[in-house]
Design the sequence.
């Protein structure tokens, strides 16, 4: 199996760009959505809210409307030639239920554009990588509290969208090396529970071979993270991974216990591993491009991209 190659990069945003806001997963609080839209307008963007963003499923209240409606919103937004970016309002749960309802041939034909989200949106990041060959952005979402209330997260995202050459080196001052060293590869990752859940599905990534894997999660206790990582190990998915960055682990229990799991499950891979890298469900969350060649320096706590995230 050959190592992965960098994916197609979409164009950066410019003042006046039209951006669509969609809800592929959980329901969106209206007041938080409005606050996020105000931030986007302050960046001289023109946000357009998809029709079903504020819906709530009548039977499953953890979903933002029906699978068909969420998929239709996404499809229409992506295939609109006047839309330069598709931004997720929030995560939660539900992307896996709608991802196979999308017409991926039509999405590919619509051409590259910016896609942004994280958490449950991991399922869509993987779909874009595997079905379209498109680089995407793992970063703060429009109606998420950790975006609305955090200036640093806002500014790092804004710089990535408008001036990507200014953030080619992504550094986390609070990081430490769990396993020291440097590694080169193509970035991928997201919520580790979603990566494990993708295993065995028809369009799943065969492995993380040659990749720089950036993972985080929320609400998973130490034993569950052990189970998730063990599944990835047993399946061979982590064979020949180049390096690993560990982000935030909010509501996953005391970190000493988590660190022991990471050292036990990942330390034997023989690759650099950096912890506390500052992306995911945390304050000051960094925006991480997926699908780009980069170097990870575990001791310096830095990810240096070979080229800017956006063209």
Sequence:
């Amino acid at each position: 199996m050959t190592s992965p190659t960098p994916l197609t990069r979409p164009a950066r945003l410019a003042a006046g760009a039209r951006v669509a806001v969609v809800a592929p997963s959980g329901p969106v609080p209206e007041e938080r959505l409005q606050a996020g839209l105000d931030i986007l307008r302050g960046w001289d963007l023109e946000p357009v809210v998809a029709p079903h963003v504020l819906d709530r499923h009548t039977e499953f209240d953890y979903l933002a409307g029906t699978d068909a409606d969420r998929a239709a919103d996404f499809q229409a937004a992506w295939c609109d030639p006047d839309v330069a970016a598709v931004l997720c309002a929030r995560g939660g749960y539900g992307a896996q239920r709608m991802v196979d309802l999308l017409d991926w041939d039509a999405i590919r034909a619509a051409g590259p554009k910016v896609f942004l989200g994280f958490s449950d949106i991991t399922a869509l990041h993987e779909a874009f990588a595997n079905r379209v060959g498109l680089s995407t952005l793992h970063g703060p979402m429009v109606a998420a509290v950790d975006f609305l209330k955090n200036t640093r997260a806002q500014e790092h995202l804004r710089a990535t969208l408008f001036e990507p050459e200014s953030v080619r080196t992504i550094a986390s001052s609070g990081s430490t090396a769990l396993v020291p060293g440097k590694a080169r590869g193509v970035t991928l990752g997201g919520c580790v529970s979603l990566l494990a859940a993708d295993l065995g599905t028809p369009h799943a990534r065969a492995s993380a071979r040659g990749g720089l894997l950036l993972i985080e999660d929320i609400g998973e206790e130490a034993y569950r993270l052990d189970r998730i990582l063990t599944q990835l190990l047993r399946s061979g998915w982590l064979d020949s991974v180049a390096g690993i960055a560990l982000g935030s682990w909010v509501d996953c229990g005391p970190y000493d216990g988590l660190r022991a799991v990471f050292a036990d499950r990942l330390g034997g891979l023989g690759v650099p591993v950096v912890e506390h890298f500052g992306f995911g469900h945390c304050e000051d969350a960094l925006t991480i491009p997926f699908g780009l060649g980069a170097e990870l320096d575990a001791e310096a706590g830095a990810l240096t991209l070979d080229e800017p995230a956006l063209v």
User: Anything to note?
Assistant: The mean pLDDT is 96. Residues 30-42 form the longest helix (13 residues). The first strand starts at residue 18 and ends at 22. The CA atoms of residues 68 and 98 lie 7 Å apart.
